[in-house]
Design brief:
The structure holds 2 protein chains of 2 kinds. Chain A is mainly alpha-helical. Helix content of chain A is about 80%, strand content about 0%. Classes of the chains: A mainly alpha, B mainly alpha.
Chain lengths: ~400, ~140
């Protein structure tokens, strides 16, 4: 593998850590583990395979057509459906971005002890400066690689000596114990939503266009989506295992962003705590940038504006203004003082409702020879794509009723 | 226009219903009290774990102070709401026990922020006992 290809995998790692493991995964995986032990590990596998299937499609569509997904969504589905998809995804992006910014501020507070609201401001200023000044490659490297500190949760999971037989059993769907059936399904929906958040594919495909992917990168696309998201899934397993071993027997219901790092501290000590906090800071910070840029990409691609992180802001002024406005709006949402963990729960559940609007056009375009030539979906990609679309439809219908009926998973 | 009004009404109902889901009106039922007890158990148990890890030198001083303060805020909010809550006469003694337990948990968590290693150890034990008591109350209400 050439050095260029090796570095290109960073795009996948950033998407995996900053996209797959974001505040939504931290919240839902630890809460699921603390409520149902290892019994929901199988849902993470389903979510990981789902995001791999659709990311690979998005990357392939971007590499062959040289156009990102949202550009094609509007062209393929028409203005009305495209606009509905745009509005839904922008609302979810904004909520998610606000939750990630809140997560950055909380993590900074756990590290520094400074006031929360001051850290929200400092955090947003830092993210804007980083997004404005650093080239795309450096944003990928800084956030992607420092986000890898989250691997400390895998070490913690091993050091807590879980019953590996029961862990293995958790990968098989079946009957459950420990909480109500409604709450169980609420977490199934939440874990799938956290794994398959729409902004991940928008960001991934736009990044592929910006990186100038072509036919040569199709193999790289496969490797990036599989390795990147599998790594994200591996971290999700670790979070759930840690919560199952440490929090479930004690009756701890993780409602704070400081709770997962406490598990790392308990198993690994002070170094473990610091690695967990740094990992969370960069994973959540990277996700804040991703959601913000995904929002700006969608707007620019829908309205046909010049876009791209590589473009000088003066040349792509509406795109640059869009991401600045999204950061500003997210800042206002967090400054209201609304709990970022609650905000995360709502943003993940609402993103589930928007999933079919995101994934159906991708499936259709990936099968359209007009765009894809001979690189349309193969049989396996189509079978998986259709199966996942049915799953997505079911969870989208169930998401809001489950949120209300379970009082946000509280039972 | 009629369709638009319907959409606005539905959005308004959803906006009110989502945060209030599970409130159940002004009087606390046995199930709502049991949920409060579960929530107190969680706060106390997490405080105990934090105190234990802090006394073993596994956390930083800043982390312990900030995280115990977050837990304290939640316990203090629960104490205030339990103190003023109305419930059926048969559940009044449980409500009072929970309110006083919540206050004790909040006080312990408040002390934990600036405690010495020795105090952290004794707070870990106290919070663990409070978690067990909350659990007993919750089980009794189920």
């Amino acid at each position: 593998m050439s050095l260029k290809n090796f570095l290109a995998i960073a795009l996948g790692i950033l998407s995996a850590i900053g996209g797959f493991v974001d505040i939504g995964d931290l919240v839902f995986n630890t809460q699921a583990g603390a409520t149902f032990g290892f019994q929901l590990l199988w849902v993470v596998v389903i979510g990981v395979v789902g995001i791999i299937v659709y990311s690979e499609m998005c990357g392939r569509v971007a590499a062959i057509s040289k156009r990102p997904v949202f550009d094609l969504v509007r062209e393929r589905t028409g203005f009305g459906a495209g606009l509905a998809t745009l509005i839904a995804s922008e609302v979810v992006n904004l909520l998610t971005c606000a939750a990630e910014i809140g997560g950055v501020a909380i993590t900074l507070q756990l590290l520094s002890g400074l006031p929360y609201r001051l850290l929200i401001l400092l955090g947003v200023v830092a993210l804007v400066v980083v997004s404005w000044t650093l080239p795309f490659e450096w944003i990928e490297r800084v956030f992607g690689y420092l986000g890898l500190c989250l691997l400390v949760f895998a070490v913690a999971a091993i050091k807590l000596h879980p019953n590996w037989g029961k862990v293995a059993h958790g990968f098989v769907p079946g009957s459950h114990s420990g909480g109500s059936t409604m709450v169980y399904f609420y977490f199934v929906v939440g874990l799938l939503g956290a794994a398959m958040t729409p902004y991940e594919v928008y960001f991934y495909s736009s990044g592929a266009v910006e990186d100038g992917w072509g036919l040569k990168e199709l193999g790289l696309n496969k490797v990036t989506s599989i390795i990147g998201y599998a790594l994200g899934g591996f971290l999700s397993f670790a979070l759930m295992i840690v919560a199952a071993v440490l929090f479930l027997p004690r009756g701890i219901d993780p409602q704070f962003l400081g709770t997962p790092p406490l598990a790392s501290a308990d198993a690994v000590g002070q170094l473990g705590l610091l690695l967990a906090l740094v990992g969370i800071l960069f994973a959540v910070g990277g996700a804040a940038i991703e959601t913000c840029f995904a929002g700006a990409y969608n707007l620019a691609q829908f309205f046909g504006w010049r876009w791209g992180k590589r473009e000088r802001p003066a040349r792509a002024s509406r795109f640059a203004l869009s991401w600045l406005v999204i950061f500003a709006l997210a800042l206002l949402v967090v400054m209201t003082g609304y709990d970022p963990v609650k905000l995360t729960e709502y943003s993940v559940i609402f993103s589930v409702v928007a999933l079919p609007l995101t994934y159906l056009p991708i499936l259709l375009i990936a099968n359209d020879r007009t765009y894809m030539g001979s690189h349309t979906n193969g049989r396996l990609a189509n079978v998986l794509g259709v199966v996942y679309f049915v799953i997505i439809l079911l969870v989208a219908v169930a998401a809001i009723p489950l949120l209300v009926l379970t009082n946000g998973g509280q039972g | 226009m009629r369709k638009r009004n319907w959409c606005i009404q539905a959005a308004a109902i959803l906006a009110v219903a989502l945060p209030c889901a599970g409130c159940g009106g002004g009087e606390l039922s046995a199930s709502a009290l049991s949920k409060q007890a579960d929530s107190l158990r969680s706060l106390a148990a997490e405080g105990a774990l934090l105190a234990e890890d802090a006394s073993a030198g596994k956390t930083t001083r800043t982390f312990s102070r900030v995280h115990s303060s977050d837990l304290d805020k939640a316990a203090s909010k629960a104490a205030a709401s339990l103190e003023t809550a109305k419930t059926k006469p048969a559940l009044e003694s449980e409500r009072r026990r929970l309110a006083s337990l919540a206050q004790r948990i909040s006080d312990d968590l408040d002390r934990l922020g600036n405690a010495s290693k020795g105090e952290q150890r004794s707070l870990a034990n106290e919070l663990q006992r409070a978690a067990e008591q909350s659990n007993q109350i919750a089980e009794g209400l189920k």
